[in-house]
């Protein structure tokens, strides 16, 4: 019996092509302006393995078969690199499989394709040249030819398969926790999700091909087709939604500009707190007194943090547990607030000083209805500012001069950055003085410093708006995107009387919402609300009516309630209404593992009293997920 083996020399050409493939991957990264790659070794290793995986099987063929195989792979490689590069030039983001669900978008790109072609793209065709040269040298007998027999071919196929498996295994499980990752799936999901926040990060680690491959695999396995039962569940939810009605403030800000500030990691618990007699957030405190202040308002984020806050706020749909709608459902048709305002004659802008690919914003923003995105490259980071990213102060100042050119009425969403974890701002900007025996650890102190700094930046922004007359012409909303995860709430929130002990763990999820408009009186609202309620509330104030049914309710209307789920298990962890509250401390719990409380007395009451609302909310949250997964936001919901 013959031994299973193969001469390695047959892999010389695939190895050369795989080497070229590594270089092409790096050229792609340069083309899309990535900074120096911090994961260079991993990147070379995995792109080389993929190159071998793609070109290696050519050794199984001879003559014409080999030519055909190599031409197909080379063409595939060239097409993928070039189409991703062209897509990036056009959209400022990376192409996702879901983009092809709608022909209208690819149509738009076709017309400008010619303009986007650049000489650098020739690099992605070099494999054809290498193959031609190799064949020429083989013919001239400068390179020896090896022909494999059957058993050697099996050996080669097994070799390629196992090296491929090994390489990918190493990337996914190579941190020594391999088996744990398999057994503790929900933790693995968390880690993989922390990987999805930035395509840049993913592409720098594994290359554009692997990014696209994982996107395609995700797209194929994602359940997007709804069953009849699913549709029936969504319909059942729709029939039960309480009529939103029109609050007494309907149209109070009609025709005004809309300025939104999504404030990074801003927790409600820091407002009105003092250190050595000095307020931590003097400007927010002032604004909270000047306008409507919702102090029982909650974030609804899932694994998508900032992006989920934007998603929930702009769509009035729940964030998806286990995955990030901004990433996996960027190409849905939504019915978001920016789109509604565009249809009502507004020009719509988003402003954020990060790269547009972060959280896949460049792909989803047009779907949300933003006409213009102002991003990192539109701002100038002053030399020696000490900030790693553009500081919030510069962000607001530079944005103010851009705002002068926005035709009215406009909607402008500002997303701040300076108070982002790990909350490190330059020493000169850390102006809070902590008392000697302050109870805070280093991270908590850094957090408070960064919030204090960003509060000042916001204060200056509002001051200029007042000076240049913009304040009078605008409806302004400021809210926190999510908590700080520093455990600060347990220290600062301990004396909070409005939060009863059973719900104390929700303190970090409590973010402030402040709404300002010259005709609105200063007023604090204790009613429970969440990011989900932003869209209906703002639409009513502006006097525009959303075309579709929304998950949230007008905070200035009659119905108030908040339902919060665990980001991964989907279990409902909290329900708050003015009359009743439900809390489940078990992350993956069922209804029975929870506690029911009568509000506002905060007294335990039989669990059965919470059953109805729990069932209704289970239907609503499930319906929301189905609406996103089944891409129903702009269709099914329209016939409200
Ligand atoms: C980056 C910023 C931070 O663009 O939005 O996002 P986060 O890490 O909080 O999700
Ligand atoms: Mn954030």
List the domain count as a whole number: 2
- Figure out the total of helices: 20
Q: Could you name the CATH class of the largest domain?
A: Alpha Beta
What about the largest sheet? 8 strands, mixed
**Global mean pLDDT:** 87
Strand order of the largest sheet: 7-6-8-1-9-10-4-11
Unique ligands: (2R)-2,3-dihydroxypropyl phosphate, manganese (II) ion
The gross shape turns out to be globular
The helix/strand class is alpha/beta
Number of E-state strands: 17
CATH architecture of the largest domain: 3-Layer(aba) Sandwich
Low-confidence stretches: 103-108
How far apart, in Å, are the first and last alpha carbons? Answer: 73 Å
Characterise the protein shown here.
With 640 residues, the chain is α/β, with parallel strands linked by helices. The chain has two domains: 8-221, no CATH class; 230-629, 3-Layer(aba) Sandwich (Alkaline Phosphatase, subunit A), CATH 3.40.720. The chain has helices at residues 12-31, 40-55, 63-91, 103-116, 126-139, 150-173, 178-183, 185-196, 199-221, 228-240, 282-290, 305-315, 325-328, 337-343, 361-368, 392-403, 442-467, 488-492, 534-542, 611-629, and strands at residues 257-263, 274-275, 278-279, 292-294, 297-298, 347-352, 372-374, 410-415, 474-480, 513-516, 523-525, 529-530, 562-565, 572-576, 580-583, 595-598, 603-605. The protein has an eight-stranded mixed β-sheet, with helices on both faces. A five-stranded antiparallel β-sheet has the order 13-14-15-16-17, with helices on one face. A two-stranded antiparallel ribbon has the order 2-3. α1 (12-31) runs antiparallel to α5, α2 (40-55) packs antiparallel against α6 (150-173) and α16 (392-403) runs parallel beside α17 (442-467). The longest helix is centred in the N-terminal third of the chain and has 29 residues, at 63-91. The N and C termini lie far apart (73 Å). The structure holds (2R)-2,3-dihydroxypropyl phosphate (GP9) and manganese (II) ion.
């Amino acid at each position: 019996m013959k031994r299973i083996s193969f001469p390695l020399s047959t892999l010389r050409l695939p190895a050369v092509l795989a080497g070229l493939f590594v270089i092409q991957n790096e050229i792609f990264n340069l083309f899309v302006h990535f900074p120096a790659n911090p994961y260079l070794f991993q990147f070379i290793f995995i792109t080389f393995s993929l190159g071998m995986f793609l070109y290696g099987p050519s050794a199984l063929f001879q003559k014409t078969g080999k030519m055909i195989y190599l031409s197909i792979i080379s063409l595939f490689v060239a097409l993928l690199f070039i189409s991703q590069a062209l897509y990036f030039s056009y959209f400022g983001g990376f192409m996702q499989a879901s983009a092809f669900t709608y022909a209208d978008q690819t149509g738009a790109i076709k017309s400008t394709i010619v303009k986007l072609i650049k000489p650098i793209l020739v690099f992605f065709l070099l494999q054809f040249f290498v193959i031609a040269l190799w064949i020429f040298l083989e013919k001239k007998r400068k390179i020896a030819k090896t022909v494999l027999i059957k058993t050697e071919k099996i050996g080669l196929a097994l070799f390629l398969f196992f090296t491929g498996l090994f390489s990918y295994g190493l990337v996914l499980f190579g941190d020594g926790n391999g088996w744990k990752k398999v057994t503790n799936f929900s933790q693995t999901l968390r880690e993989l999700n922390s990987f999805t926040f930035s395509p840049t990060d993913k592409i720098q680690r594994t290359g554009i091909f692997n990014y696209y491959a994982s996107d395609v695999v995700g797209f194929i396995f994602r359940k997007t087709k709804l069953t009849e039962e699913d549709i029936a569940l969504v319909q059942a939810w729709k029939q039960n939604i309480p009529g939103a009605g029109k609050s007494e403030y309907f149209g109070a800000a009609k025709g005004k500009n809309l300025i939104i500030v999504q404030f990074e990691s801003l927790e409600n618990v820091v407002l009105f707190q003092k250190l050595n007699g000095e307020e931590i957030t003097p400007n927010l405190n002032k604004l909270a007194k000047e306008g409507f202040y919702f102090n029982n308002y909650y974030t609804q984020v899932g694994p998508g943090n900032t992006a989920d806050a934007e998603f929930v706020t702009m769509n009035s749909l729940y964030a998806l547990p286990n995955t990030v709608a901004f990433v996996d459902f960027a190409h849905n048709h939504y019915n978001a607030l920016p789109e509604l305002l565009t249809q009502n004659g507004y020009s719509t802008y988003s402003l954020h000083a990060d790269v547009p690919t972060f959280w896949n914003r460049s792909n989803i923003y047009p779907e949300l209805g933003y006409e213009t995105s102002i991003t990192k490259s539109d701002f100038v980071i002053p030399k020696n500012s000490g900030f790693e990213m553009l500081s919030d102060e510069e962000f607001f100042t530079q944005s103010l001069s851009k705002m002068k050119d926005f035709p009215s009425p406009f909607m402008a969403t500002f997303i701040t950055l300076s108070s982002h974890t790990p909350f490190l701002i330059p020493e000169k900007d850390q102006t809070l003085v902590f008392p000697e025996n302050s109870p805070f650890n280093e991270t908590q102190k850094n957090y408070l410093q960064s919030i204090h700094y960003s509060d000042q930046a916001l204060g200056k922004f509002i001051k200029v708006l007042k000076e240049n007359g913009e304040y009078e012409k605008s409806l302004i909303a400021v809210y926190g995107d999510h908590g700080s995860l520093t455990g600060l709430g347990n220290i600062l929130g301990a004396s909070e009387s409005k939060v009863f002990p059973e719900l104390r763990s929700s303190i970090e999820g409590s973010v402030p919402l402040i709404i300002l408009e010259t005709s609105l009186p200063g007023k604090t609202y204790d009613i429970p609300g969440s990011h989900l309620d932003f869209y209906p509330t703002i639409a009513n104030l502006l006097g525009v009516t959303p075309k579709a049914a929304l998950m949230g309710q007008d905070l200035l209307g009659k119905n108030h309630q908040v339902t919060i789920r665990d980001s991964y298990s989907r279990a409902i962890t909290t329900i708050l209404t003015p009359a009743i509250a439900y809390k489940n401390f078990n992350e993956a719990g069922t209804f029975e593992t929870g506690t029911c409380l009568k509000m506002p007395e905060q007294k335990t009451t039989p669990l059965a009293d919470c059953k109805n609302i729990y069932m209704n909310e289970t239907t609503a949250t499930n319906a929301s997920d189905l609406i996103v997964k089944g891409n129903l936001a702009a269709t099914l919901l329209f016939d409200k």
